[in-house]
Amino acid sequence: MSLAQFVFFCGFAVVAMAIVAFGAVVVRGARRDDGGPFVTRALVRRLARPGRDRAELQRWAFYLHRISGLGLFAFLCLHVMDVGLYVVSREIYDEVHQVYGSVPMRVAEVGLLFGLLFHTANGLRLVAVDVADLGLTASTRVLYGVLGVSAVGTIAGAVFVLGPVFT
Amino acid sequence: MTTADVRDAAGAARRRRVAYVALRLSGLLLAVLVLGHFVATHITTDVADTDSRFIDERWASALWIVWDGVMLAATLGHAVLGLWAVTADYSSGRRRTAWRAALLVGAGAVFVIGMSLLWLGATG
């Protein structure tokens, strides 16, 4: 690992730590403001049975939206810097960029894709709630669609992103 | 309550409404730009092949320079508006002011650095 690659790795570690720290802030705030059960088996059972406790799933979508949003912003800051190396020196850019093709980074990119897809689809759901005046029932139904699109899109993207590892 | 208070309250409500709409409009724009960016750098081209030669080709086209510039500006605006609301939820008083100042300085720095790099990369 060259020095430039090590610096990039450190930047990535900072991004990961920012996501974990912000996640802790969100969960602590949730415990204080919203109370109620957290990820227990009873909660999962309730979420799996549509129609009972729709607000609960929306609450979790709200937390995931925040955490994914901060994660995407943190990664953007790092990404602008590493692409900017292209202007400084093409050799250093190519060196750092090799990290993007490595297996651990490809796995991280699949996580990035999930964050992007969930944040996008859920954001479009929030717009739809205003524009189409969706109520709790309809917006929860759309939320199932959001989760489905994020899961399917992530798996489909993972085939492309992780495919070269196996061939 | 004086007339000035009413005018201030109306101004604050209007600013909040503008921020609310801007957050959603930038989000709609980014849904296209960012997912398109991911497709271009991971699906249609494998990520290992997006080296400096790939950037040479991309930034030879005005479409991609405009795409990247608009994407950067919209993302930072969207991030500032979103995190502005987040700081309101998780901090208060002087600490909130400090987080917001850090947010503006950070986003401003990324904007200036990113745009100048894009300019230099596209012209140089």
UniProtKB/TrEMBL annotation, chain A:
Belongs to the cytochrome b560 family. Its main location: membrane. GO terms for biological process: tricarboxylic acid cycle. GO terms for cellular component: membrane. PANTHER family: SUCCINATE DEHYDROGENASE 2 MEMBRANE SUBUNIT SDHC, SUCCINATE DEHYDROGENASE HYDROPHOBIC MEMBRANE ANCHOR SUBUNIT. SUPFAM superfamilies: Fumarate reductase respiratory complex transmembrane subunits. This is Succinate dehydrogenase subunit C. It is found in: Membrane. It comes from Prauserella rugosa. The chain crosses the membrane at residues 6-27, 67-87, 99-121, 142-166. The keyword Metal-binding applies. The lineage of its organism: Bacteria, Bacillati, Actinomycetota, Actinomycetes, Pseudonocardiales. Its cofactor is heme. One of its GO terms (molecular function) is electron transfer activity. NCBIfam families: succ_dehyd_cytB. Keywords: Heme, Iron, Membrane, Metal-binding, Transmembrane, Transmembrane helix. InterPro entries: SdhC_prok (IPR039023), SQR/QFR_C/D (IPR034804), Succ_DH_cytb556 (IPR014314), SuccDH_FuR_B_TM-su (IPR000701).
TrEMBL record, chain B:
InterPro entries: SQR/QFR_C/D. The chain crosses the membrane at residues 21-44, 64-86, 98-122. One of its GO terms (cellular component) is membrane. Keywords: Membrane, Transmembrane, Transmembrane helix. The keyword Glycoprotein does not apply. This is Succinate dehydrogenase / fumarate reductase membrane anchor subunit. It comes from Prauserella rugosa. The lineage of its organism: Bacteria, Bacillati, Actinomycetota, Actinomycetes, Pseudonocardiales.
